[in-house]
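Re: the 70-residue chain
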Amino acid sequence: MDKSLNFTQITKKYRGKWIGLTDDEKKVISSGKTAKEALEKAKKRGYKNPILFKVSVVLMPYVGNILLTK
């Protein structure tokens, strides 16, 4: 079973913050008001190169990409 992150819950918990994710994007390992703060916290926990992600303040639905041509 896929253990992907639930970004709805992440948005509620980390709204407006930067988060550090593991390489497989399945676990939040740090958070902070700035990317630098989230990176420093992740490094203190032993993660050298976390994926940094800015969590939106507003949860917006995304349906996909539509290519319109003439």
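The mean pLDDT is 87.
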